[in-house]
Design goal:
Blueprint (H helix, E strand, L loop, with lengths): L1 H9 L1 H23 L3 H14 L4 H12 L4 H14 L4 H13 L3 H13 L5 H5 L5 H4 L14 E6 L3 E3 L3 E11 L5 E3 L8 E14 L2 E12 L3 E5 L3 E4 L2 E4 L3 E6 L3
Parallel strand pairs: 2-10
Antiparallel strand pairs: 1-3, 3-6, 4-8, 5-6, 7-10, 8-9
Helix pairs in contact: 2-3, 3-4, 4-5, 4-6, 5-6, 6-7
């Protein structure tokens, strides 16, 4: 740590001064943006970039300040400059596509999203949830690039034949967007052949904005007969999944 500090102090005038100037311009730009002066903010962020050109964040703030004034083409140009300096930065490409969509250039927006998807740099559902791509989502040629999030529901069940006194277990796995409320509807059994004992919910690790749950449902075979379990319907974020009825047969020992 002492060595590092010595190096930084030793090069402060020659190398750190531009970074300090960029930070000062950035803070001035943020203050102007907070005050609603987006023109002044754009100038401040542009000056910050002159002091520190490789910063993706400064290019994104500069583009935002321009876009807030309705200057979507200039916002795209600001991000293009950032991409020329940091070619593989996903948010530079994503924001440029968003400003293209907001400016009515759906073809450019589609090319930007395709670039990200081809490289596995972005989940298409993120664009589907972004109002900036609303025009893209309703255009048949491009709707697949901004899909609405779809709930996924899978069922695993044991052999659907049990003996009286044994138990039958089914597992439902749900995948939804993180934070989305979920509703589950399951018809009440109409016979007494299976008696519900318990339902256990396990929260599985989230993955890149998706929440995963596992419902383990257990019944007791109490009488001879067949019982249709389901269909079970789950709903979240405007999407639904439905299982087929699970027909379970309970039999007595010979």
């Amino acid at each position: 740590m002492i060595v590092l500090l010595s190096v930084l102090l030793g090069c402060r005038d020659a190398e750190m001064a531009p970074l300090k100037d960029a930070l000062d311009d950035y803070e001035r730009g943020r203050a102007l943006a907070d005050a609603g002066d987006w023109g002044g903010a754009a100038n401040a962020f542009a000056q910050a970039i002159e002091d520190h050109p490789p910063s993706p964040a400064l290019h994104m703030w500069w583009a935002k300040a321009l876009a807030e004034q309705g200057q979507f083409d200039k916002a795209r140009d600001a991000l293009t400059q950032g991409i020329e300096r940091v070619p593989e930065h996903p948010l530079l490409h994503y924001n440029r596509a968003a400003y293209a969509a907001r400016g009515g250039d759906l073809g450019a927006a589609a090319r930007g999203l395709n670039y990200l998807y081809a490289r596995g740099m972005m989940d298409p559902v993120i664009a589907g949830e972004d109002p900036d791509f609303a025009a893209l989502a309703v255009e048949p040629r491009y709707a697949h690039l901004a899909p609405a999030p779809a709930l996924q529901l899978e069922v695993q069940m044991q052999e659907p034949s049990v003996l009286i006194g044994d138990r039958f277990t089914a597992e439902l796995q749900l995948r939804t967007r993180v934070g989305a409320p979920i509703s589950i509807d399951a018809p009440t059994p109409t016979t007494a052949s299976l008696v519900h004992e318990r339902t256990i919910e396990d929260q599985l690790p989230d993955e890149a904005g998706w929440s995963q749950r596992r419902l383990t449902i257990r019944w007791l075979a109490a009488a001879v007969g067949e019982q249709a379990l389901g269909p079970v319907t789950a709903k979240a974020h405007g999407s639904e999944g439905k299982t087929s009825p699970m027909v379970v047969s309970a039999a007595a020992l010979p």
